[in-house]
User: Fold these one by one.
Assistant:
Number 1:
Amino acid sequence: MTLALEQAARGLGRTAPNPPVGCVIVQARTDQDGEVVGRGFHPRAGEPHAEVFALRDAGERERGAVAYVTLEPCSHHGRTPPCADALIAAGVRRVVVAALDPNPLVAGRGVQRLRDAGIEVTVGVLEADAVRQQAGFRSVIVRGRPWVVAKYAMTLDGKVAALREGNGAVSGPEARERTMRWRDELDAIAVGSGTLGLDDPALTTRGVPGGRDPRPVVFDRRAASDPQARAWRPGAVLVTAPDADAAAHEAAGITVQRAESLPDALSGLAGLGIGSVLLEGGPTLLSAFLAHGLVDEVRVFVSPKLLGAGLSPLTAPARPMYEVQALHEVTVEPLGQDVLISGLLHDI
Ligand code: AOF
Ligand code: ZN
């Protein structure tokens, strides 16, 4: 299943609104020993599912084999035919599934179909890892909004930027490399109008072999941002108020998403096929997301530097300590000179 999760990861950032899914086919010699005969992953919506690629890869060697799949094989005719049927026709003996498919069109029917055909099915192997990997897909189906990952880098005294000009990067090259990997893996990258105006960020993925750029999403209530800013490339989205004058952005070919509130805006993004969002700044936007309970995961780089007076990662008034939002499933990882601290605010 670990190999299947590695296969699935190759589709991260490319499959929305579908999930990233991986499949590995093993000819078992004994319970402890076997040979991987096929590998596959779902490359993008509209293309065949992971199981189909893995069966193709196995050639004729899948008969009597065990299939490891990170998501319950589908039972419905979508853009592609049911994978459960493909596995049955291929004559696999056993199917091991990491997580059930929350899609109401599948939701247990895939497993049932396999069992009805006499195939032994095990569910729940490395389930937590699979669910995390599929967070964007599952979030849209279960909650009607994308999975939001907030990311920032701060100094040892908790500042994300200086108050005056002369702002360089807070964190080092390893942290930057990690951020670029996340940009490659998440569907969209979001910033507020303040960050767009101050930094004119490109919001692209750089230095990742085979990498692709996330869809830029700019939260700009008044639609006052420069329509010529670097972030505006095909697929970019302007999120603005219902009555804002976005004529210049529309004329520039930018997708304009109008919403009354932040929660409505996020439902709108899900409707545009965005399952996961990397929220990269600034403090005003992050504070608004947190106030609405819309941040699911937090990834923070702490850099061994002291700045003194500067901008905090959050602008909103601090909550009283008894209401503080504590992360769970926290991990701490040294990255060069920096430390990456990550954790969840919500589960999926
Ligand atoms: C699988 N294996 O690799 C994936 C699955 O329109 P379709 O035919 O692509 O169906 C999309 C749905 O199929 C998607 O919403 C999810 O429920 C499931 N995705 N299932 O067996 C896969 N990507
Ligand atoms: Zn399928």
Number 2:
Amino acid sequence: MDKRISLIAANWKMHKTIGETVSFIETLQKEVGPCTDREVMIAPPYTALDAARKAMTMEGYKLAAQNFHWEEKGAYTGEISGPMLKDLGCDCVILGHSERRHLFGETDEMIQKKLAAAFKFGLLPILCVGEVLEEREAGRTLEVIGTQLERAVQGLSREESGKIVIAYEPVWAIGTGKTATPGQAQEVHLAIRQHIAALFDKEVANRLRILYGGSVKPDNVDALMAQPDIDGLLVGGASLEVSSFKRIVQYQ
Ligand code: PEP
């Protein structure tokens, strides 16, 4: 089995101006240097994508958008399409983040269309899945995530499915300071891999990179990354300061 290259991703949400974005990326690259054994991905707001692309000059740094619309163009006021993100130099797009699902009403059906569109327009999709607290407490975590996964990958080819990056983000851990323990995260990551193996096959499942997200901090990063099925991290709050994100990128 090929080694899965780890991916440390920053989701800045609705934070940072163009100037702040450029200054962050320049400082991070200066302090971390080029990355060859891991990838670093930054998802600034749409308004800073162009500046971020220009500031990313070192190997191993990738640019992501936080969302997009599945259509190529049309009467969709306020939306941005895949070709527009490619035009800006984006490599990846985050899909189905819990804030998109819960605050903006994104459904599994919309996320499935976005996933298919990401492949159509040449963007690497980072598909977020995760359960809310009541679902975890009711013992429904794996069932909820299984359904989100099945609906999202409908219609994808085997090749495409092996390329998706999945981010397991328990909703109760996002921005709350409550992190899943490394053991809790590993259990779900393994179940995701097994689910993908059942939907496609083992080879596809072994290629799949599965990130953990939810209150990742410098002091829990090493234990999370030591788990065999955690291939990277999706980081919100702790990605906004260079000092903490740098420590996360430099996990041991
Ligand atoms: C996120 O929003 O993807 C996230 C994981 O946020 P935080 O790290 O702040 O919990």
Number 3:
Amino acid sequence: MRIDIITCVPDLLHSFFSHSILKRAQQAGHAEIVVHDLRQYSTNKHRTIDDYAFGGGAGMVMQVEPIARCIRDLQSRHEYDEVIYLTPDGERLNQGIVNQLSLKGNLIMLCGHYKGVDQRVRDLFVTRELSIGDYVLSGGELGAAVLVDSIVRLIPGVLNDETSALTDSFQDNLLAPPVYSRPADFEGSKVPDILLSGHEAKIEDWRYEQALIRTRTRRPDLLD
Ligand code: ADE
């Protein structure tokens, strides 16, 4: 999978994508993540990419031309399944959407800033609009980082233990059960006996029950 991210603050994303699981995923050839500086697609000498809003009002608008140039340039070289715009008024991201996107081919992600992008970008180029939550960030970059991270870890082979993605919270609309490691007794606080019993089936039952309890108390909306 190839993911191209269009932003006017590329430095913000470069370091994020060169660490940990995302770094390994790229080195192993599972994902190629390329960050594009939108200012490179501006044709004026100050490399500006925003302008005042027609009709007045506070805040600048990201112009259609540099964005169109950048997206067309990418589309002339690669096939893309989606052009995703990160915006607080998009569809709210959840694990189901992440699962769907992880099965796609290449993706373009566009990060908004200021008052957002000219509506014609959304009408003509964007195929999907996503928000990472009901709060407003200063730009779409953190949204793109969240989206890339959540997608790439689902690509087969990226996680060492492939089953670990399947037992994540949300994968079956349940939060994950509690987990424990050594020591079995920490200052009198003990690991539940069942986990030390060696009874695989009983342990599975216990985990399922704990996941249900957690979900019922913390996120009952997931069970509706
Ligand atoms: N840009 C600004 N706020 C955002 C949000 N909540 N989700 C995605 N992109 C954003």
Number 4:
Amino acid sequence: MKIILIGYMGSGKSSVGRELAARLGVRFIDLDAEIEIQENVSISKIFSEKGEIFFRKLENFVLQRILQLDENYVLATGGGTPCYGNAMEIIIGQKDAISIYLKTSVDRLIARLVTEKDNRPLLAHLKNEAELNEFVRKHLFERSYFYNQAGIKVENEGSVSDTVEKITSLLF
Ligand code: S3P
């Protein structure tokens, strides 16, 4: 089975994905890392040199390539992956895959993102916590339309292991 984790930046897709993959004995794939390997450049550089539209097309292309792989894996998508073009339709239409929305409270997202925002091109321009707060609340609200289409929703409010435990008990 393929497991596709979706959710906002800072929702824990990579840390939960890595532990879940280890637990299931399958490969962990991080979509952002795959894009960086393919292009041999960082996500921030893609945004700054080629712009967001270029990034979104690339992201969709790499997503589709990964979905065609003939193996089981856990895929951590980027926070915006399901929200552009036909990506969410493709994700939910995938017969051998299950999509999981890692749902994290806005307060927790902000607490994580405040220290990590500079690695994220969409947040780097925000000057302080108040601006981050305002941006994330609106952005999450807009994106939730896509995230809520996932096959399963799992709250990621406790430890990574607790969330992995919740996911495995829902799957098996
Ligand atoms: C993005 C999230 C990032 C990365 C890019 C854009 C977004 O991934 O794909 O910076 O649009 O939410 P993470 O969710 O892993 O931070």
